[in-house]
Amino acid sequence: MIPPLARFPAEWEEAVVRLGGRKFHGKSVFKWIHARGVTDAEAMTDLPAGLRTKLKEEEGLGGVLDIVRERRATDDTRKLLVGLKDGANVETVLIPRVAGGRSDLPSPVEPEDADAAAAVDDEDDLEEEKKESWVPVTQCISTQVGCAMGCVFCASGVAGLKRHMTADEIVAQVIVGRAKLDEGERLRNVVLMGMGEPLHNYENTVRALRLITHREGIALSSRKVTVSTSGLVPEIARLGEDFGGQIGLAISLHAADDETRSRLMPINKKYPLPKLM
Predict the structure, then answer these.
(1) Could you read off the pLDDT of 38-71 as tens digits, one per residue?
(2) Model pTM score
(3) Which sequence spans correspond to the domains of the chain?
(4) C-beta of residue 173 within 8 angstroms of C-beta of residue 152
(5) Which fold has domain 66-276?
């Protein structure tokens, strides 16, 4: 069964009809969750009381992921440790744009978080921000518990891959992150550059991308979403085909020659630089 936070409007329509509701209630549930960030069925006030009870009891709509710990840097970058239902923890990071351009990202923010902010920079965005009164925020989200890629510089892969994250767990990070924005901030970009290799968890990643960019939900432009990969060549091509080239791509390169890159990133032995390029 598709988890509640991973459903599209049509899938919610089918679910609420089974619970005795009407089809249009399904679209309302989707908007409550993804557009408004409300995951507690009791707070969905335009739904019948009986349906709200069934959504909570039979569909598990009573809350979202827990924030285990939050660390805030001096530039207001926030690193959130998020608790999953099976007890596993992953990280998601909120990175605000500071005056004058890219954040200096002081400790405790890691270098890869700076990469996440840089991956979505372009001159048009910077000009747009100068005209706006709100502070744009980039969110870096995770797609796996641990990682199988074994890159020597990355803490996520030290213990290896524990499991793939489900699409609802991936999307829930955005819902939780949006709720943690400070006054005057707005979520502008999402970068899949947290724990895990997004393209190794392809199906869940793709469903999450379609939910994040759904026009009736979170509604981020596909231009504002970037997938970072260590270099899974077949999945890179597949991602381009599935999204018509409209999703951003960032390559974790780390070296410009095969010998060095293979030493740092084992995936390079399977997909060396000429093939990746």
Answers:
(1) 999 999 999 999 999 999 999 988 767 899 999 9
(2) 0.90
(3) 4-58, 66-276
(4) no
(5) TIM Barrel (3.20.20)
